[in-house]
């Protein structure tokens, strides 16, 4: 029973990841990457929450803070850090599984770099189905939106780090 619980701990962090390795073999690498993307989003969210809790914590300036409030914040921080550890483990497992599943698709570096003098064979492009073209445009728009959201999150995190560094500098 101990060995069974050790393999299912990362799967318990999210219901989207199946608990047993046999089920992972039937999942496509694209689906694993989508789960990985969601996991990265969860990691960013948890990190933002940790910074917000840290930002809201009053620095010890001679005023005694209630023990209950301190314990509450400390418990929240511990829980977020534990969840963050589990999410990183899950992300690592997803990465290893994707690499394992796509190892035969990896091209060697010599195939990626064209040599001088080698002529590149022209690739014949056939017209696509309009539905496929529309799907591609929708996916590209979603990616642009996600990228914009990620930029906003990164700016917020950068500002939060600046604020924390400024508070630490003022403390000295």
UniProtKB/TrEMBL annotation:
InterPro entries: Mediator_Med30_met (IPR021019). Keywords: Activator, Nucleus, Transcription, Transcription regulation. GO terms for molecular function: transcription coregulator activity. Residues 1-20 are annotated as: Disordered. Pfam families: Med30. Residues 1-17 have a biased composition (Polar residues). One of its GO terms (cellular component) is mediator complex. GO terms for biological process: positive regulation of DNA-templated transcription. It is found in: Nucleus. Component of the Mediator complex, a coactivator involved in the regulated transcription of nearly all RNA polymerase II-dependent genes. Mediator functions as a bridge to convey information from gene-specific regulatory proteins to the basal RNA polymerase II transcription machinery. Mediator is recruited to promoters by direct interactions with regulatory proteins and serves as a scaffold for the assembly of a functional preinitiation complex with RNA polymerase II and the general transcription factors. Belongs to the Mediator complex subunit 30 family. This is Mediator of RNA polymerase II transcription subunit 30. It comes from Clarias magur (Asian catfish). The lineage of its organism: Eukaryota, Metazoa, Chordata, Craniata, Vertebrata.
